[in-house]
Amino acid sequence: MIATPHKKGSSLSWAGRALSLDLTTDHFLSLVGRSPNHQLIGLLELVSASGQSARFTVFHRLAPLQSAPIAKVPWTIRANLELTFLTTPATVLEVPDDRQITVSSFIPQTTSSSLNFPTHTNATCLYQLSVVPSGSQPPPEEIDFSSSNKISSSPLCALDASGLPNQKVQEYFNIWLRPKPVTAKREPNILVTEGYDLMGINWATSKACTLSTVPSDPQQLHRRVSQSLANQAQWKTRLAVRLPERLPQPVLRPYPIGPAPEILPDGSVKPPPKEQGWFAKYWMYLLPIVVLLILGGGAPEEEGGQGAPAK
């Protein structure tokens, strides 16, 4: 399904599990994320409605892949991201817990030419992105910092636009959010959200390459990447907001403790068999014992008669 909004140059495509938005730096449309199970979190629209919002800062940097934190590489602000959380009629979404999310803006703050290659850059240089709430400190500057799920790293060759259509990078930016608890005060068919927690991010491009991809001329690759970063405003950005998958609730069934009752022809339930007495249950164990006692005989006779005791 492809829908074209009224604004020229914008396109929206159905990605199977989420609605994704193609945008450039000169126009911004709202994007509605989706959790799986083929149910939409919200509706696509130009952002004009009021609601609670959250602002995030997108950082990026170029850092070499190192096995030890021998150096630090500072982060540079790439863009400011604003998300809006709107109250949503439950009857529209068919899922009482879902909320509506819209991307209000994704505004670049600095030119990518401010990114410099580290001194020890090699073929395994990484392009890293991170998202933090606005006003928060950027992630640690250690180049091997990888314990946070809010940092996404890609090989340097992912920024090489050579061989791509129109020599432009197509980037894919996924953001995962976790809804906070819903307030206790509710109006009929209206869900009031307290916002979302940032769970993690993932960034990639249409350039197929891995860390094991070794360029024939690293210096030439660096020049092409520098040119691509200088033209970052012309990149095609596909931004998707997603929620965790909602698993179905388990169906609890009582464990059967016996066979199903038998139904008689007249429709009544066949009564259980009458409880047997103790002897009727265990007679087969008692019978061998009785036989052994009967056929076993008496005590053996004494050998040789003894005379009467002397007086």
From TrEMBL:
It comes from the Eukaryota. GO terms for cellular component: endoplasmic reticulum membrane. Its main location: endoplasmic reticulum. Keywords: Endoplasmic reticulum, Membrane, Signal, Transmembrane, Transmembrane helix. The keyword Transmembrane applies. It is found in: Endoplasmic reticulum membrane. It is a single-pass type I membrane protein. PANTHER family: CHROMATIN COMPLEXES SUBUNIT BAP18-RELATED, ER MEMBRANE PROTEIN COMPLEX SUBUNIT 10. Belongs to the EMC10 family. This is ER membrane protein complex subunit 10. It comes from Cronartium quercuum f. sp. fusiforme G11.
